[in-house]
Design goal:
The protein is an alpha/beta fold. The chain is built from 17 helices and 26 strands.
């Protein structure tokens, strides 16, 4: 079985082979088979003095643990995604997904199914203030239920660690946490897809360097600055840091949508046949050749030079043409400043570049400025939704909606793998209700245990993931109660999957240690506590299918069959050895693209071979697998 690292290496070798076939050679793998490989000595010769190796100085971001973080992003994951229909809304038909568990494991499990399919990613990762960074390390212990419930470990016995400033690897640990996640996130983005990352000053500089390594300097679109609060009266340095940032990167060269240009301020008081116009600035801050000279009002003879310290934006010849066409508005007095008559009909683009400054409501927002309230407004809105203050510093729904307006199409797919209070889901619902889009969302959240003295814990929420799911339920219901665009499909559901250990038993016995019962158990290697639904989602992950495809259960010859996305997949996990010729003949009539069974569903190997032959005869396009 290949790992993501094997697949990435193979893809890189194939791309090198296309452009530089002379670098290719053959070597034998561990299994003795021949495989295509890269002659690294030839590659070094080809690069000449542009190759950097060993201790040679170079410009790069490095930290203790970076090599391990890189290896972690490429390592395979021995885990499964288990469905929880009782915690979901419209489980069988919704196109939205909520994954509960460590987001690195979740991203790896989703990688094949969503490779190059995500339109927009928004994340609000831990800001590394010394108290809010929770990450999973590889330390294993015989964890007691007390430790797990108190937040020291998760359900798998893995320790959850606060990153305290006293830690000597304070910044290094944060970088090691974010690095592998961003590497996989880039793989999930489609070409031209965008990622928006909220961050503060604690790690903004490091984050930008990491992103430039992963996404490339040329794919840095810019940085929004958002005023999140009105001011702090107890700032130690007497400098109140009231803003946060949103860094924007693309997978490949892309642009924001910009703000739709409006012509509300354009009028036509002189009935100019060229239509509505506005009086605009007629000067430039920098010289562009011969651009400092007097111009003359043809009616009054008054001469005008550019304003002090500025220049005309046109050459003498071009300026003479503008005056002759009546596009220069001269002032009535000699002390005034000439202006440019700019017509709406001359607008080249239908959009304006969006400002990097995000203004608060009531501020001095221009036409191209995004408007978003501060954190206090988001806290109040969430309190109204729950009738209690349950979450600290949630992001305003308006902020995520503004980013969605810039970063994804109306039918796009957004991913948030630091979901927190699930603001992204509510923002998506509201956008769809307003403009008739059918955006979809994937949210991932670690079930981080809430403190017993917190308001959320007192309201019955044991961890943040529980709070996230309830926020999605309540906000979806609230949006449906309001005005909804007729083109929206009104999907406010979400399918809940949880990261768990593998569905298959682990067999690690030497032959002399294997008992007869072990041999019997190995006939069916599925764990006894795992059901057909669990196996279905394992198949979706292994086959690289999207995890929100519609699912229909049917009974065929007294056996349960799952049909996924019509006939994209037919799955029967009968384990009683009852899969026979009559059942298979009826199943092949559906002509599924893929079919999967359990090994235990066949009476013997002859029955299994017979089934495979029936598919080749009756539905030859079907790919058949067994687990």
């Amino acid at each position: 079985m290949s790992t993501p690292r094997d697949d990435a290496s193979r893809d890189l070798v194939e791309r090198l082979a296309e452009g530089f076939p002379e670098l290719m050679t053959e070597t034998r793998g561990e299994d003795g088979s021949l495989r295509r490989s890269v002659d690294f000595d030839k590659l070094r010769q080809l690069l000449g003095d542009r190759a950097v190796d060993g201790p040679q100085e170079r410009y790069q971001l490095d930290w203790p643990g970076k090599r391990e973080a890189l290896a972690l992003s490429n390592a395979s994951v021995d885990a499964a995604l288990r469905p929880y229909e009782s915690e979901s809304v419209e489980f069988a038909s919704t196109a939205n997904l909520f994954v509960e568990g460590d987001n690195l494991d979740a991203l790896k499990l989703m990688r094949e199914g969503y490779l190059g399919k995500i339109d927009m990613i928004y994340i609000d990762p831990p800001y590394n203030t010394g108290s809010d960074l929770i990450y999973k390390d590889s330390f294993k212990s015989a964890a007691t239920e007390f430790k797990r419930k108190s937040g020291y470990t998760n359900e798998l016995g893995e320790r959850l660690v606060h990153n305290a400033p006293s830690n000597g690897r304070f910044h290094s640990d944060w970088l090691s946490m974010i690095y592998p996640r961003l590497r996989i996130a880039r793989q999930l983005l489609r070409d031209g897809g965008l990622i928006f990352i909220s961050i503060d000053d604690n790690e903004r500089a490091n984050l930008q360097k990491v992103c430039e390594e992963i996404f490339g300097h040329d794919n840095f679109l810019g940085c929004f600055v958002w005023k999140r609060r009105s001011g702090a009266m107890d700032a130690v340095t007497n400098l109140s840091e009231d803003h946060e940032y949103v860094l924007i990167y693309s997978k490949s060269q892309a642009v924001l949508k910009g703000v739709e240009r409006t012509f509300e301020k354009y009028t036509n008081p002189d009935n100019d046949p060229r239509g509505p116009w506005i009086s605009d600035n007629l000067s430039a801050g920098k010289p562009g050749g011969d651009t400092y000279y007097p111009i003359t009002d043809p009616d009054t003879g008054n001469e005008f030079y550019p304003p002090k310290g500025r220049y005309w934006p046109y050459s003498r010849h071009t300026m003479a043409g503008k005056i002759a066409e009546g596009k220069v508005i001269f002032p009535k007095s000699a002390g005034g400043t000439p202006m440019l008559k700019r017509f709406a009909s001359e607008a080249i683009k239908s959009t304006l570049p969006v400002s990097s400054w995000i203004e608060r409501p009531g501020g001095n927002a221009g036409q191209s400025t995004l408007v978003t309230p501060m954190n206090s407004s988001a806290t109040k809105a969430l309190k109204e939704l729950f009738d209690a203050k349950l979450f600290s510093f949630p992001k305003p729904v308006e902020l995520i909606k503004a980013l969605m307006s810039q970063g994804m199409p109306k039918d796009g797919l957004v991913l948030d793998f630091f979901a927190g209070s699930a603001t992204t889901a509510q923002a998506m619902f509201e956008c769809n209700a307003e403009d008739g889009g059918n955006r979809r969302a994937i949210l991932v959240q670690l079930p981080e245990v809430l403190a017993p003295d917190s308001d959320a814990f007192k309201e019955g929420f044991g961890d943040i993931a529980q709070l996230s799911k309830e926020r999605i339920r309540r906000s979806g219901s609230k949006v449906l109660q309001g005005d909804c665009h007729p083109d929206w499909n009104r999907d406010v559901g979400f399918r809940v999957l949880k990261v768990d250990s593998s569905n298959l038993k682990q067999v690690h016995h030497r032959p002399d240690q294997t008992a007869q019962q072990d041999l019997l158990d190995s006939i069916d290697n599925v764990k006894p506590d795992r059901g057909a639904d669990d196996l279905l989602f394992q198949v979706l992950v292994d086959w690289g299918l999207e995890l929100t495809l519609p699912i229909r259960r049917a009974i065929v010859r007294e056996k349960t069959v799952f049909f996924v996305d019509g006939a994209a997949l037919a799955a029967c996990f009968d384990a009683e050895g009852g899969i026979d010729e009559a059942f298979v003949k009826e199943l092949t009539a559906h002509k599924p693209l893929r079919a999967v069974f359990r090994d235990a569903g066949f009476k013997d190997s002859a029955a299994k071979i017979n089934v495979e032959q029936l598919f080749k005869l009756l539905s030859p396009a079907t790919e058949v697998r067994c687990i």
